[in-house]
Design a protein that fits this description.
By secondary structure, the chain is of the alpha/beta class.
Length: 345
């Protein structure tokens, strides 16, 4: 039996962390080690772990490193053949880990196995007979880098199929994949770090599959603060410049300009225009680092952008936001342009 290392990132959230750890300790998969990478919590999380969960490995980072960096610190120490990274507000069904292992071992072309995530029943105030709502079944990616959860807000179904996806919010991957493509990009403090790692796994020639047999529930709430918009949008541009071939970037450039103009209008209306402008200067300042990363990616890239963009969408949506201008003008415009250029990629 292969060893699995489950890595949970925590920052000042010991109550939901406890629920996550209890679900991990109840897993039917036997060879499982659990790591908590704590980003300098000040709510007593560390003491709670040491007292109530002595079998859990605690990694104390001392400060908030961001999600990807915290996972990387644990990846360096974990002993697993497979790695599963988690947010602390997730709870796993007892067979969740085993189902992900089975999927990875069923097909060596699968580089990442992704669970179905549903909204936690308590958060929805559902009765036992009510069907849960889907938080994500993989992630949909627009060709300009905007990503959003697949099937979000739809009623859960028992007959969802095994599905290839462009990106996974959380997933299990093997040590072999980790050694090939590396861990998380630590320049992406928060947001899109999962998209970037998913992208590199696909560049390495593997598929990402989401399975309905592996289920997590999520204590989710939508955060639409200006810092989220700023970090998410800056990192979206960063990973496009880092991972896309030059030809593809040139082809999508007109669409990128349109999306950026829409983002600038949104920033102006919602009070984060200064941060948006700041993000452009920060991207310019990172050009040398991005060029270095592009060279690193070329060393293991096995597929072209034609394969990568096979799963991309022309339409666009933003999780937690509904806007008629986006739905009836921006999205159809981007979709029409995608139909025009996708054959040239």
């Amino acid at each position: 039996m292969k060893k699995v290392s489950a890595i949970v990132v925590n920052w000042n959230d010991k109550d939901v962390l406890s629920g996550c750890l209890q679900s991990l300790l109840k897993q039917e998969y036997e060879d499982l080690e659990i790591w908590v990478s704590d980003n300098g919590s000040e709510d007593g999380s560390q003491a709670m772990l040491k007292e109530s969960y002595p079998s859990v490995h605690l990694l104390e980072n001392g400060k908030n490193l961001g999600f990807g960096s915290a996972v990387n610190r644990a990846l360096e120490k974990a002993q697993g053949d497979y790695f599963l990274f988690l947010n602390n507000d997730l709870e796993l069904e007892p067979d969740c880990v085993g189902q992900l292992v089975d999927l990875l071992e069923s097909d060596k072309e699968i580089g990442a196995a992704i669970p179905k995530i549903i909204y936690h029943r308590d958060a929805q105030e559902l009765s036992p007979n009510d069907s849960a709502m889907i938080n994500s079944f993989g992630v949909v990616v627009n060709y300009t880098g905007v990503s959003y959860p697949n099937l979000v807000g739809q009623q859960d179904k028992n007959d969802l199929p095994l599905t290839e996806t462009a990106c996974g919010g959380i997933f299990m991957f093997s040590r072999e994949v980790y050694e090939q493509v590396g861990g998380f990009d630590e320049d992406l403090f928060l947001y899109h770090e999962d998209h970037d790692l998913s992208w590199r796994i696909r560049l390495g020639g593997w598929k990402l599959m989401v399975t309905p047999k592996s289920v997590c529930s999520h204590h989710y709430y939508f955060n639409k603060g200006v810092q989220k918009f700023y970090r998410s949008e800056k990192n979206r541009l960063h990973i496009l410049l880092k991972n896309m071939e030059c030809k593809t970037l040139i082809l999508i450039f007109p669409a990128l300009v349109v999306v950026e103009l829409a983002q600038i209008v949104h920033a102006l209306m919602h009070g984060w225009l200064g941060l948006k402008v700041k993000s452009y200067f920060e991207i310019l300042g990172q050009f040398a680092q991005i060029a270095r990363k592009r060279r690193q990616i070329r060393s293991f890239r096995k597929v072209s952008d034609k394969e990568i963009t096979r799963l991309y969408r022309g339409t666009i949506a933003v999780s937690g936001m509904k806007n008629p201008l986006m739905d009836y003008i921006l999205s159809p415009l981007l979709s029409a342009y995608w139909k025009l250029i996708r054959g040239w990629i």
